[in-house]
């Protein structure tokens, strides 16, 4: 770090230690468009499961002025006028697509921090500063070719600036074609640009702080960048002081590498042969849930909820199609295979319908947190907790020594009919979405 005093005459935006922030555009909408190209260029919203609020909007909808989290019933008039298409959310699909995007992005840098379902930081330290814009374009092209999702790339010396550069790439304030590298701009250009961006658009500057800042006439990014950091620390917090330093190119927020626990764990697979009965499906779901639980424990995490999904083969257009997911809370966050498998099977019973040929199922663990961050309550059954920890420990060590699946719970089945292929043909990796190699 070293460079600690702020000198506004000299802005450190040289991209000497560049970080990229790659963010998917309108992620949920883009995922839906991959599988339904008819949605391209149409106004589309994705609605939340329970309350029917718009949780994602396509650019066309944004242009109509519909705000995020607007309840659908409030949008109905606008929707009729402009033919807005409303879709219910399919978190299983988004989780799966996210895993694919992140796995490809990990090949672009030795250090990756997955920040959320649709964005990650990449350390570009040591890359030729002149070539970063072209590199950003390669990233965009690769993700588009392999997954079909449009992304924007922001490049700068600190995480806060990289976020802002990404914002600029999206809004087309600066940096054409979805890539913005602040290192390519002179200090005067940067000052001019920052003076056009509202202070509330800065990463970590929430609504309350924004209101307070505006009352103090700190209205733009440039106003905050040139504010006195000591005074701001006294009036706000050390967090805002850090933000100011970061806006001036002084890194204060470290890159959290892959060593940090993941935010979600997805295990899913297309079946070797389609299955229609509940028992076969439930075996597959139990198997995926236990494998996800094993990854979870390896990270030292616990999960607060779990999403189960099942789907028929979308490429057999003449067969009846069925595609459902459900989110099941685990009660107290847990890493216990038995509890997670039970939750998954319970979820499956609520979405399973007779009379369909299922091609794929999967389990997505969500709301992950470090195990030791969970406070035990007075009423927890300590003995039971202890027993569960021991059992899971034994299970993991046996599977480590004897090979995966040596010790499993009975629900995941011994026949595993769904896992077998009818023929020995290799998967159609490039021609069949369903058979793309999956990132786990
Ligand atoms: Mg995004």
Which terms summarize this structure?
disordered N terminus; 440 residues; Dna Ligase, domain 1; MutS, DNA mismatch repair protein, domain I; binds magnesium ion; alpha+beta; 19% strand; 3 domains; single chain; five-stranded mixed beta sheet; Alpha-Beta Plaits; five-stranded antiparallel beta sheet; globular
Report what the structure shows.
With 440 residues, the protein is α+β, with helices and mostly antiparallel strands. The chain folds into three domains: 19-25 and 94-247, Alpha-Beta Plaits; 27-90, 3-Layer(aba) Sandwich (MutS, DNA mismatch repair protein, domain I); 265-435, Dna Ligase, domain 1 (2-Layer Sandwich). The chain is 37% helix and 19% strand. It contains 14 helices and 13 strands. The chain has helices spanning 27-35, 59-63, 72-82, 91-105, 132-146, 159-171, 187-194, 207-215, 221-225, 229-235, 238-247, 278-298, 337-351, 382-402; strands at 19-24, 44-47, 54-57, 85-88, 112-116, 119-123, 151-156, 179-181, 265-275, 301-312, 323-334, 358-366, 369-370. The strands form three sheets. It has a five-stranded mixed beta sheet with strand order 5-6-1-7-8. Strands 9, 10, 11, 12 and 13 form a five-stranded antiparallel beta sheet that branches. It has a three-stranded mixed beta sheet with strand order 3-2-4. β7 (151-156), α6 (159-171) and β8 form a beta-alpha-beta unit. α10 (229-235) packs antiparallel against α11 (238-247) and α12 (278-298) runs antiparallel to α13 (337-351). It binds magnesium ion (MG). Magnesium ion binds next to β1. Magnesium ion binds at residues 23-24, 27, 118-119.
């Amino acid at each position: 770090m070293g460079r600690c005093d702020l000198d506004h005459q000299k802005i450190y935006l040289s991209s000497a230690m560049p970080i990229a922030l790659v963010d998917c555009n309108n992620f949920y909408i883009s995922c839906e468009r991959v599988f339904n190209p008819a949605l391209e260029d149409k106004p589309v919203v994705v609605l939340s499961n329970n309350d029917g609020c718009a949780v994602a909007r396509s650019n066309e909808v944004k242009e109509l002025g519909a705000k995020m989290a607007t309840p659908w019933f409030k949008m109905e008039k606008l929707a009729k006028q402009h033919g807005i298409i409303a879709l219910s959310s399919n978190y299983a699909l988004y989780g799966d697509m996210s895993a694919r995007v992140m796995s490809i992005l990990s090949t672009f840098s030795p250090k990756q921090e997955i920040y959320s379902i649709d964005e990650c930081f990449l350390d570009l330290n040591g890359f030729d500063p002149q070539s970063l814009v072209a590199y950003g374009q390669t990233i965009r092209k690769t993700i588009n070719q392999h997954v079909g999702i449009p992304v924007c790339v922001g490049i700068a010396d600190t995480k806060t600036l990289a976020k802002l550069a990404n914002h600029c790439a999206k809004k087309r304030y600066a940096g054409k074609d979805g890539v913005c590298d602040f290192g390519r701009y002179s200090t005067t250009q940067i000052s001019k640009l920052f003076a056009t961006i509202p202070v509330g658009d800065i990463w970590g500057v929430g609504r309350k702080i924004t209101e307070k800042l505006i009352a103090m006439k700190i209205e733009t990014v440039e106003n905050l960048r040139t504010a006195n950091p000591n005074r701001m620390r006294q009036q706000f917090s050390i967090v805002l002081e850090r933000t100011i330093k970061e806006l001036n190119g002084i890194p204060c927020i470290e890159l959290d590498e892959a060593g940090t626990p993941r935010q979600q764990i997805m295990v899913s697979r297309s079946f070797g042969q389609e299955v229609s009965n509940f028992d076969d499906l439930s075996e597959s779901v139990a198997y995926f849930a236990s494998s996800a639980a094993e990854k979870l424990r390896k990270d030292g995490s616990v999960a607060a909820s779990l999403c189960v999904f099942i789907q028929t083969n979308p490429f057999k257009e003449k067969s009846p199609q069925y595609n459902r997911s459900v989110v099941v809370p685990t009660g107290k966050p847990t890493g216990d295979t038995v509890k997670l498998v039970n939750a998954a099977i319970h979820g499956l019973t609520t979405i399973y319908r007779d009379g369909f040929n299922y091609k794929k199922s999967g389990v997505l663990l969500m709301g992950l947190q470090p195990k030791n961050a969970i406070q035990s309550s007075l009423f927890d059954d300590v003995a039971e907790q202890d027993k569960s920890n021991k059992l899971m420990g034994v299970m993991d060590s046996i599977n480590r020594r004897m090979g995966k699946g040596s010790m499993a719970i009975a629900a995941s089945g011994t026949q595993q009919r769904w896992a077998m292929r009818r023929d020995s043909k290799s998967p159609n990796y490039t021609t069949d979405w369903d058979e793309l190699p999956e990132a786990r």
